Amino acid sequence: MDLNAVRMLVQVADARSFTVAAGQLGISQSGLSRAISRLESALGVRLLHRNTRNVSLTPDGRQFVEHCAPLLSGLEDAERRLGDRPSTPSGVLKLTAPSMFGRKVLVPLAGQLMAAHPQLQFELVLNDRLVDLVEEGFDAALRTGPISDVRMVARPLRPLHWVTVASPAYIAQHGEPATVDALRDHACLAVRNLRSGRLVDWQFREAEGQLREFTAPARMVFDSGDPLVEGALAGIGIVQVMDFAVADALADGRLQRVLQPFEGRSRVLSLVYPPSRQASPKLQVLAEALLGGNW
């Protein structure tokens, strides 16, 4: 029997509403409904009366909840007692993150954490798809921009900043642009938004802190931002990317920042996870490493 589904049933019985119970549990209403339907199938009885206004227990459901509620209370007490003891991060931590951030930051960071905690494992899904953490069984996600899902905990991390860079070889051959408009005389590498069909604008801070959007004259266009760094390193042209993506290349001189006085574009980065994962030791060590900001 699925104990999580039993807990969900008790929560629905108390709230008399799938919507309210789903919000309290931090899961989707559809996921909650499916979990209880699976429990009903496993038990071979109907546990809830459902209608458009509210839900209520059937006689079988009432009897089942009356027997299970004290047992669940005892289990929760046992979990709290165990939770007071020091716990070692262990097991699989399933995460999703944008592709470039995952490759450049999360993979090395995961390697460091596995070295420090031998019982810890990672499963990483690195793409820009917005996954449903609860439905798809993820522990957490790294997401950029505002977080609109109120069911989730969102811990803000160090903001991401955009930098405009080129290789020393490109600058030696073509010169360095002194103004944003001077980019029109340079080879730029850009990304096309596949939904709108437009090139993704670059952004700069100009006089009095005003943000200016600029459509770069692209000599080469990609369908994602991942190849931009490789293009810049190859000396093909100028790119605008997030700072973490080129931190190593800037540090060792393979790339140089251009138009530095006009930098200023940034984006919020958050570690997002369901409230049920709040006390997870494996998630806590990841959060501490990310909040340390050494990336």
From TrEMBL:
Family from the record: Belongs to the LysR transcriptional regulatory family.
* Source organism superkingdom: Bacteria
The record's listing under CDD domains reads: PBP2_CrgA_like
Gene3D superfamilies in the record: 3.40.190.290, Winged helix-like DNA-binding domain superfamily/Winged helix DNA-binding domain
GO BP annotation list: DNA-templated transcription
Protein name per Swiss-Prot or TrEMBL: DNA-binding transcriptional LysR family regulator
Instruction: Report the source organism.
Output: Stenotrophomonas rhizophila
Q: Which InterPro entries match?
A: LysR-type_TF_proteobact-type, LysR_HTH_N, LysR_subst-bd, WH-like_DNA-bd_sf, WH_DNA-bd_sf
Q: What keywords does the record list, in alphabetical order?
A: DNA-binding, Transcription, Transcription regulation
**A Pfam family assignment:** LysR_substrate
One GO molecular function term of this record is:
DNA-binding transcription factor activity
Residue intervals of the HTH lysR-type domain? 1-58
Q: Where is the signal peptide?
A: none
